[in-house]
Design a protein that fits this description.
CATH class of the largest domain: Mainly Alpha
Keywords: FAD, Fatty acid metabolism, Flavoprotein, Lipid metabolism, Oxidoreductase, Peroxisome
Structural class: alpha+beta
Largest sheet: 6 strands, mixed
Low-confidence stretches: none
Pathway: Lipid metabolism; peroxisomal fatty acid beta-oxidation
Protein name: Acyl-coenzyme A oxidase
CATH architecture of the largest domain: Up-down Bundle
Number of strands: 11
Cofactor: FAD
Mean pLDDT: 94
CATH topology of the largest domain: Butyryl-CoA Dehydrogenase, subunit A, domain 3
Subcellular location: Peroxisome
Strand content: 5-15%
CATH superfamily of the largest domain: Butyryl-CoA Dehydrogenase, subunit A, domain 3
Helix content: 40-55%
Distance between the termini: 60 Å
Radius of gyration: 27 Å
Number of helices: 21
Length: 628
């Protein structure tokens, strides 16, 4: 209420009727109002990161700033980069000013010519031993930074990832703090070429920009040196682990998984509520039209999306605990579980974003023609979610990074070495006498079956790489030729992890709720597990003994779970507790007045502000009066 009832944060004109420039300006205005209110909360004694998380996340944040927040990258990447890469002295210099928004920052990594492949980045930072400065330069057009949120017209500072050169050698990608604009006039500094990249499918309030450097000099102290270091004489000191450099990206991937749960919960709330109001067709000819939600096909479109939004939220909480644990181990110099966290974060980011994007689109389709309206907010939500399939690591590339980790784990399993928790199922697979697991449709059986699928795919991929190498192909070429299998292996591994993690987190949650709520939670989880198993039928037939009668029984279990959830479906989405202003959709409002609200939205169109549009007199009337 503190945010949503503030007149300054309420929408006066629907954003889709604003120009591109007006939309950005309105987004900046609202962002500054919202973060001032966060400071007010701090003054009122309500301090804490949760206020920022709510404003930057997929619920309250996108309710206020429907096309994205131009300050998000400042909080989600610039500040964590200072903490993750800066020495205590650098943190003392920069973090306070950034936290108080005395400076606004962004994080520039992706370039016009390179994104996920970090080693291919072209921006250079060359150390000048005479002046003790770095010279940042964009040697080509493709070296221009491209996509950072807030870069175009919002930020005046930036953490730039660039190839470090000193003493004639390249020392790889390192982070540098660079001032982009004058702190008073906001004009770009000498040597800086900066601007906005243009309109996008969504997130047009984020102010994504481009950035080019023409021999821009910064002092040596502006290289963030918590991990790698460059001494005054130009000597490079390596970090204990190269992976430490990517800590910020891992943090963001954890945040993305949580946001996907939030976006999917918004979409499914809108679709379930609409489906309870909308009536369509007869099931029995002698009875009235039924609510759309009573059609089994509609339940199958929507209820698995409810389950996914809950499982994704719980698994992101699990990942968050894992991230904090590994981060604390890193601070003590223990890097043992870093590769495991990296592998899990990569595949979870890929699967949750892909499934959320598909889920939002299925929810839109489930709302028929009205779902196609911009005001339904599926379009805006889809724009947010589908963007996440690409940023912070393109999904296929991330799956292949997880697959690379799994190949190493496979070799460890073959050698009988101890395995970390997320891949311990490989040891069980190798100890099994049969290549096909005995099918068992209990929850434990489904988890083991999905793990067997992942292990079986991994075994085949490893064998195929080996066979290709024996035919004279290099390891790299053999890996590329097996990459379809490898990506599918990582996908299977992640889905098995989600089903297992979801089970553990649901059972943990059931300990603290009433038996009635626990029953509903377990039904939601069972639906998720049955749906994942049925979608993996081809693989289950390859790697388990599942039979046609087993499949029929599994299908019946899924349909029974749908029927069991039907009376509770609206109650479940109501329990997400998403205010109408955050949903931003006439189809999903709590009062169910779909048609009245749709009509009110239609009346807001600029074309409805006058009975006759000027185009009639300018074009239509002369055309109609002329003889063709």
């Amino acid at each position: 209420d503190f945010f949503l009832n503030d007149p300054e944060l309420q929408e006066k004109v629907p954003l889709h009727f604003l120009s591109h420039k007006e939309l950005y300006e309105e987004s900046v205005r609202k962002a500054t109002v919202a973060f001032r209110k966060v400071r007010k909360l701090q003054e009122m004694g309500q301090d804490g990161v949760d206020n920022y998380s709510a404003l930057l996340g997929g619920l309250l944040g996108t309710g206020i700033l429907k096309q994205g927040n131009p300050l998000t990258v400042h909080y989600v990447m610039f500040l964590p980069a200072i903490l993750g890469h800066g020495t205590p002295e650098q943190q003392a210099e920069w973090f306070g000013r950034a936290w108080n928004c005395e400076v606004i920052g962004t994080y520039a990594q992706t370039e016009l010519g390179h994104g996920t492949f970090l080693r291919g980045l072209e921006t250079t930072a060359t150390y000048d031993e005479q002046t003790k400065e770095f010279v940042l330069h964009s040697p080509t057009l493709t070296a221009y930074k491209w996509w950072p949120g807030g870069l175009a017209h919002t930020a005046n500072y930036c953490v730039v990832m660039a190839q470090l050169f000193s003493k004639g050698k390249c020392h790889g990608i390192q982070p540098f703090i660079v001032q982009l604009r004058d702190e008073e006039t906001h004009m770009p500094l000498k040597g800086i070429t900066i601007g906005e990249i243009g309109n996008k499918l969504g997130m047009n309030g984020v102010n994504n920009g481009f950035l080019g450097f023409d021999h821009v000099r910064i002092p040596r102290k502006n290289m963030l040196m918590k991990n790698a270091k460059l001494l005054e004489d130009g000597t490079f000191v390596k970090p204990p682990s190269q992976a430490l450099t990517y800590g910020t990206m891992m943090f963001v991937r954890v945040v993305i998984c949580r946001d996907m749960a939030a976006y999917l919960s918004k979409a499914v709330t809108i679709a379930v509520r609409y489906s309870a109001v909308r009536r369509q067709s007869h099931i029995n000819p002698d009875q009235p039209e039924v609510q759309v939600i009573d059609h089994l096909t509609q339940q199958y479109k929507l209820f698995p999306a409810i389950a996914k939004s809950i499982i994704f939220k719980l698994t992101s909480d699990n990942l968050w605990e894992m991230y904090n644990q590994v981060t604390s181990e890193l601070d003590k110099g223990d890097l043992e579980r870093l590769p495991e966290l990296h592998a899990v974060a990569c595949c979870l980011k890929a699967i949750t974003t892909a499934d959320a994007a598909t889920g939002v689109e299925v929810c839109r389709l489930a709302c028929g023609g009205h779902g196609y309206m911009t005001c339904s907010n599926f379009y805006g939500t889809y724009g947010m979610v589908t963007a996440a399939c690409t940023y912070e690591g393109e999904n296929t590339v991330l799956l292949l990074q997880t697959a690379r980790y799994l190949m190493k784990a496979w070799q460890q399993a073959l050698r009988g070495q101890e395995l970390v928790p997320t891949v311990q199922y490989l040891a069980r697979f190798l100890s099994s006498k049969s290549r096909r697991m005995e099918w068992d449709d209990s929850i434990g059986g489904i988890i083991r079956a999905l793990q067997t699928v992942a292990a079986g795919k991994l075994r085949l991929a490893a064998e195929h790489i080996e066979q290709r190498q024996k035919r004279g192909v290099t390891l790299e070429e053999a890996t590329n030729q097996t990459s379809i299998e490898l990506a599918r292996t990582a996908d299977a591994h992640c889905r098995a992890f989600l089903v297992q993690s979801g089970y553990e987190m649901i059972e943990k949650g059931c300990e603290t709720v009433s038996p009635e709520v626990a029953k509903v939670l377990r039904t939601i989880y069972h639906l998720y597990a049955y749906d994942e198993a049925l979608k993996a039928l081809g693989d289950l037939l390859r790697f388990t003994t599942i039979s046609e009668s087993d499949i029929n029984r599994l299908q019946a279990k899924l349909e029974a779970a749908l029927a069991e959830l039907r009376p509770n479906a609206v109650g479940i989405v109501d329990s997400f507790d998403i205010p109408d202003d955050v949903l931003g959709s006439p189809l999903g409002a709590y009062d169910g007045n779909v048609y009245e609200r749709l009509y009110e939205e239609a009346k807001k169109s600029p074309l409805n502000q006058e009975p006759v549009n000027q185009s009639f007199h300018l074009y239509l009337k002369p055309f109609m009066k002329s003889s063709l």
